[in-house]
Design brief:
The complex is a heterohexamer, with 2 copies of chain A, 2 copies of chain B and 2 copies of chain C. Chain A is an alpha/beta fold. Chain A is built from 4 helices and 5 strands, in the order βαβαβαβαβ. Chain A has one domain: 3-Layer(aba) Sandwich (Hypothetical Protein Ychn, Chain: A). Chain C is globular. The chains are: A alpha/beta, B alpha/beta, C alpha/beta.
């Protein structure tokens, strides 16, 4: 059954203050050898992808994920709640309506929250 | 589909509530997430009114002395039953 | 019988996660399931040697020794141990199938188990 | 100035799931040798003092604190928000109006949150 | 009186807001508490409207890329100034 | 000059607290203040030896070694070390005024400092 597994790496926490989002992106990279993990970004984790945030510890992970054509999906509802818009974010991510985010999570076989 | 909620973040319960009745959704609360089961929690009360299935780890409810404070619609499950729930659910959403 | 994967992030004593991992692992093993655990971030410190027993506090080391004896496999994130300076203190192979590993080993656990739960 | 210091040990977190409230009460006991710390209980920490909660790890601390006549004060607002009343709590604690709790915190020299 | 807020719990800001104008209250946000400074945060916006003094750790704001998202009523302070603030305040309320 | 007490609860790398403690201590020491730190719960693990340096990650051990050199005093909760099995790994006296202590030593720090801050 392994080839059918849909892995969602779910980032929830802000980019600094804890190592969670960095470790989550590192996990996306690691798991990408065997699966096509989707990185889903909700709540304060959306701040990890604003233009001005210090990405020293995870820019290489973002680059890797984009180079192998995996998606980093941002929950629009979480953006709205924080007063953020598409223009505040880097180009490497895609904004999705909340319902789509929910569907992607619901269609996963394994969700790994960070 | 099993929402397996072990953290103090209520997002998992909120996401579970957004499913329509067509989806077979169970919410399982463990560790400090069992505090969400308190009758005064509006999100969980609303989920129960929507007839969502909610279970909570019996040991974690008992240790916290919460059994008198939760709705009797919430099913208390022991660790053995939790393992069964995990293998019965095709999809586990960890939160 | 089925195979259960478990991932967790927290070290012992500050938060309940490591105790929950032990208890759910025991329940799964007692029902005849296989259990494979990956310790990420602080969770690697849950497998340290010489955790002193204190009356009234669930001893995490003893808990993990027990599930190792029952056949659980445990993988410890190598880099997480290194950065924390606790590489030399973790439980050794004579306790059971516990060893250091990289994040790709979690991918292997996901591939080879029927369900993965994450204890936050 | 040390003899004038007012110490507030501020419990905020629930009694199980973390060791914070246990360690907070242990701190009250430790600090009581040199000061008269007041233990102030807000938010989910109020659950530490309901009758049915497992107090194995901190009942001796509560007993010690009461035996030396130090106060454990519960924020009424936090109780109300959680649907709890005086009858749900053990006798060793005292319920205070939110404004009194605020005044006690504001009049402290040192507040130690757990 | 200095509300020294380093955690992700907004209770400290709420308590600070309950003081009357007679009390000399400063709120200092550090670590992930700096996210409360975001303009979309209603509690902090209300505190600013009440003319409460709010400062935030400059390094922690900069690392998080938040400088464009916060009100210019919030004063950014470096570590040296934070130490001064600590010793200038008779009472420190850690949260 | 004045005396600053600092209390914190979190271990290194999972959360920012230990880094903040180092940076604020440096700022206070550089201004000529005294700094006395008490490490409670997981925070005792911030003072472990052999924390490997990883590019881009602030090395906590090095940070604490620096402030010890500058004269900070650090007390580590004895029981917290014991229960975590990390008693033998912490920085030794030759690094500066760092030693194991009991919770009453925090009372002493509160008594002998002008301000106490807590980094959550």
């Amino acid at each position: 059954m392994s080839e059918e597994k849909n892995i969602v790496i779910l980032l929830r926490q802000p980019p600094h203050g804890t190592l969670y989002p960095v470790e989550g992106l590192r996990m996306t990279v690691a798991v990408s050898a065997d699966f096509d993990p989707i990185t889903v970004v909700i709540n304060d984790a959306v701040f990890a992808f604003i233009k001005d945030v210090d990405k020293t510890m995870y820019s290489m992970h973002i680059e890797f994920i984009r180079n192998i054509d995996l998606d980093i999906l941002i929950d629009k509802k979480s953006l709205d709640e924080r007063g953020l818009t598409k223009d505040d974010l880097i180009d490497d991510v895609e904004i999705k309506e909340h319902q789509e985010i929910l569907d992607i999570i619901a269609n996963s076989t394994v969700t790994i929250p960070f | 589909m099993l929402y397996f909620i072990t953290g103090e973040d209520i997002t998992g319960v909120e996401l579970a509530m957004e499913h329509t009745d067509d989806d077979d959704v169970t919410i399982l609360l463990l560790q400090n997430a069992v505090y969400f089961a308190n009758k005064s929690n509006k999100t969980v009360t609303q989920a129960l009114n929507q007839n969502k299935k909610i279970s909570a780890c019996k040991e974690h409810i008992d240790t916290r002395g919460l059994s008198n404070f939760i709705s009797d619609k919430i099913k208390l499950v022991d660790n053995s039953k939790i393992i069964d729930l995990i293998f019965e659910s095709e999809t586990i959403i960890n939160m | 019988m089925a195979r259960l994967g478990i991932l967790f992030f927290d070290g012992p004593y500050q938060k309940q996660a490591s105790e929950t991992v032990v208890k759910l692992s025991n329940a799964a093993l007692d029902k005849g399931h296989e259990v494979r655990i990956f310790c990420y971030m602080d969770a690697v410190n849950a497998l340290l040697d010489n955790q002193k027993k204190i009356e009234g506090i669930f001893n995490i080391e003893e808990g993990f020794r027990e599930i190792l004896t029952k056949g659980a496999t445990i993988r410890l994130c190598n880099l997480c141990l290194l950065v924390r300076g606790t590489m030399k203190n973790c439980l050794k192979r004579e306790c059971g199938d516990v060893k250091r590993a990289g994040t790709p080993d979690l991918a292997k656990i996901i591939e080879e188990t029927d369900r993965l739960i994450v204890i936050c």
